[in-house]
Records
---
Amino acid sequence: MKYTRLTKEQLEELHPEFINFLATQSITAEEWKSIKEEKPAVAEEQLDVFSDLIWEGVLQRVEFLEKIEPLQMHLFSMAEKEMRLISVRLRQPEIDLTTQEGFQWFKKNYLADSVEYLTASKSYGEDPKVDIFGLIQQGAVITKGDLFNWFDEIIQ
């Protein structure tokens, strides 16, 4: 398995897609039920293959990721050959960016001396999707890039 198996909730949400996946392999609902009961290892394998297919499709479309923690933000832009990072760090431990109040404070004080910015670029490894997946595994979430683009303009 290249990525990770989808959660039970994700699989339930993608039930119609999973049915289509089984149909492309000529597996009927009755055959699937039989596979689950009689060959659980084969059923597990099918779930893994389906999960990887879903992750491949999702990861191929990712353009931006964000990871917001109490005192820092990591904003990523996924270009074709490299990822760009804008990192924001607060030097005020009483402010928590993960709360509405903390983020409101930040929006008013983003130019304060207690806010540090860092930018970086990094080339992808062999497979960009694996790099992107690694960031998601570390807590980054897929976004439309509003924060990244806003900071990108400010920093330049």
---
Amino acid sequence: MPCLYISTNVNLDGVDKDPIFSEATKAVASIIGRPEHLVMVILKGKVAISFNGNKEPAAYAEIVSMGGITKQVKRNLIATLGRILEAKLSIPRARFFLKVYDTTAAGNCSKL
């Protein structure tokens, strides 16, 4: 199950977040090659972020996936998610950072 966690210093009060969730879910599913119903997206606003010495709109994101991550997938995720954040939250793509984790189910799941 891929999980995308986005933190931004943009105030999300009054922002229609549904299109962000929808577009990010579709993008992650399509790019990584997983069904949409397995993609989780978390969006948190008003996070204290300074980038390049200023507090203009910026975002930091992490994505964790059990496989499906290649160099090309990383590039596509950065480009596509950057476009979504720029279009929906006016965050310039140059002020967006994505950290990618590729993990396996066997190594990171515990038995109940």
---
Amino acid sequence: MHAPNQFQQPLHAASLGKRALQGAAIALVLIAVFLLNAGAPDPRWPKFWMIRPLLVVPAAGAVGGIFYYFMDYLRYQGGWKKAVAILASLLVYLVGLWVGTVLGLVGTMWD
């Protein structure tokens, strides 16, 4: 019996598109829940003011998912590198989500 070749195992458990979609879906759910609980909009805001946050925030979430995908290399090395990769992925996702929320809501709810 021979040892498994590291080149025979796939590096990524999921495709880049799947990770981007997962990040965008989480962000979309979060911003949708936030907007639904926001109450009545200010009459001075544009008529379709919700469209921008519903596009910008999931785009930021998709970028976070893409970053998670690219951190697979470190995660598969195990040990402290796995912990750093998970922490970095979480930090980049949360900061990106925050920045996306600010950019999506500026001029309306974020004054």
